[in-house]
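User: Hey, quick favor. My workstation is busy. Could you predict this chain's structure for me?
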Amino acid sequence: MVCPLPTAQGGEARRKGDWSADESGENGRSPGSRSGPPAVEHPRKGRVMLPEKGALGERVFLSGDVVRMAGVSQRQLQWWDERRLVSPPIENHRRVYTSEQVLEILAVAALRRKGLSLKKIRKVLRLLRRELGQPGRALVAKSKSYLVTDGNSVFVDDQPEAVLNRMAEAKHPTYLVCLTDLMTRITSKKAPQRYRTPQLQLF
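Assistant: No problem, here it is.
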């Protein structure tokens, strides 16, 4: 799924500088983001969440599910696990991913396609986890939520004008990912419906 650039006031997105994939050689890459130490910015904290545990238990995904959703290979998924980028638990000799971990895998895949290194993606994931907060809360995303990062900081917002301004003012290469589109893949009725049911304690 391709995440379009946000538009301000319903108009066409204006790009400042050389942002196009054809001209810059980077897919979805702009001239940059704000310099400085690693930082997380969340002007509307608590708006990007994933489903709560339901009556059937916790929603989970197997490696094959994640491969199809992310458009990556089994080897890539295994490599990211071995590198401790996203490491799901092993149950019955199979990797079992939570919704939050699938969101992280989808974000990693999107950023890798745009040319961001695994070293920087690791930092982005750490900051993104802090931004999204604790797992298990309901998804609240009536409008598009975007992630803008330069590999050292992350900016998450659902206001197109704020996202465009951040990218326009950037001084270093930045990358744009639509978090809402990624979450839609996870919460879609077409996605695998697997659940981890809690074990009953007999004693």
